[in-house]
Amino acid sequence: MTPPPSGGDARSLVELDRALLWHPYSTIVDPPPVFAVTRADGVRIELADGTRLIDGMSSWWSVIHGYNHPRLNAAVEAQLASMAHVMFGGLTHEPAVRLAQRLVDITPAPLSTVFFSDSGSVAVEVALKMAIQYQAARGRPARQKLLTVRGGYHGDTFGAMSVCDPVTGMHTLFNAVLPAQVFAPRPACRFDGEWHESDIAETARLLAAHRDELAAVIIEPVVQGAGGMWFYHPQYLARLRELCDEHEVLLIADEIATGFGRTGRLFACEHAGISPDILCLGKALTGGYLTLAATLTTRVVAETISHGEPGVFMHGPTFMANALACSVALASIEVLLAQPWQSRIAAIERALAAGLAPCRDLPQVADVRTLGAIGVVELHRPVDMRALPPQFVARGVWVRPFGRLVYVMPAYIMDDADIATLTAAICEVVGSLR
């Protein structure tokens, strides 16, 4: 085997990456192109050759305040001076306690207990285990299945994979070894459309039919993220809350993508005026600085688990409640809440809607939709992941499509001029597709 190249220039760095690294959802044999980044500030990332790109992805939706934010930098530096990390088994520290209190303060009541982990997928795993342990502690050990809706995405670990769409999702290869869950139809009712009770009829039927084996329902509130960027009517969520109560099934809200203002509400559950029994948070929790996730639940759920067998909750990540991550998460929340973020998100939504509107007239486009700081162009056919990213780079923007979707989730600090550049590039690239 030829030894990998060495050196610090852009070309050799990309060649070394190609020789050694396996990127997400990618092949190691003739992989698609990657671009070496040397710096990031505000809403721009700078490539090794000096090219500056407007980042429409906010690093998979997490960098809500932009890159290299002075207050977030200061939070990391201050915490680093005392300690970067300490195990959370039998120990605690101020950043974790303060962050837990802040999360309880801003999330819907009666969520009051916080379990930290280190990624969104693990936050979902924690939620699923909580639901199953809760039902077992109530004397209902047969309730071990989950109900969810098609078109959803909840992560890449095994438990999380089992509640992702089993047909159109990314994990069909593993279906034979995943737990068999109960899948209802994807909500067909659009966020901005009319609501009809028939929209949830099949979900209601499945809940009633499987109630004795269901521990919980898990759903992405209002916005289905990586499973299709679909925005559904809040009343569906409100009725689902009622049905879960009726059948004594827990409701898990996966707000890893939607939490912290992305949809125009601090949490997407607020569109429906409901509170889940378990809430999963991640991505924007730290403003994109460090990996951290949280699973919140009610005191009733937590105490029920604690009073059952084996008397403890069976999970414990090594880097749980990392002090650096907790400190920067606190700073990120304060930065968000100290600004008029609602009006900023509303302005971003208007700019995205106006900028993407020309795509509606393109024959290759099936739908265009916007909600909060999310803009989506859905195509009739899947995109070519080798061809499209370089076309966006050539236009000075970073957009990473998937499947049939060309979408953006910009940082909340992006101004109208940059959004106009971003959406114009999308219209040009999509318009060039044949």
Describe the 3D structure:
The chain has 434 residues and is an alpha/beta fold. The protein has two domains: 35-68 and 340-432, Aspartate Aminotransferase, domain 1, CATH 3.90.1150; 73-337, 3-Layer(aba) Sandwich (Aspartate Aminotransferase, domain 2), CATH 3.40.640.10. It is 35% helix and 17% strand. It has 13 helices and 16 strands. It has helices at residues 10-20, 58-61, 70-80, 94-106, 120-137, 158-162, 201-210, 234-247, 299-307, 323-337, 341-356, 388-394, 416-432; strands at residues 37-41, 44-47, 52-55, 111-117, 145-149, 182-184, 214-219, 223-224, 230-231, 250-254, 278-281, 293-298, 365-371, 374-379, 397-398, 405-408. The chain has a seven-stranded mixed sheet, sandwiched between helices. Helix 6 (158-162) links the parallel strand 5 and strand 6 (182-184). Helix 4 packs parallel to helix 10 (323-337). The longest helix has 18 residues, at 120-137. It is globular, with a radius of gyration of 22 Å. The chain starts with 9 loop residues before the first helix and ends with a helix. 45% of the residues are buried. Residues 1-7 have low confidence and may be disordered.
Please tag this protein with its features.
alpha/beta; 434 residues; Aspartate Aminotransferase, domain 1; 13 helices; 2 domains; 4-stranded mixed β-sheet; 16 strands; 7-stranded mixed β-sheet; Aspartate Aminotransferase, domain 2
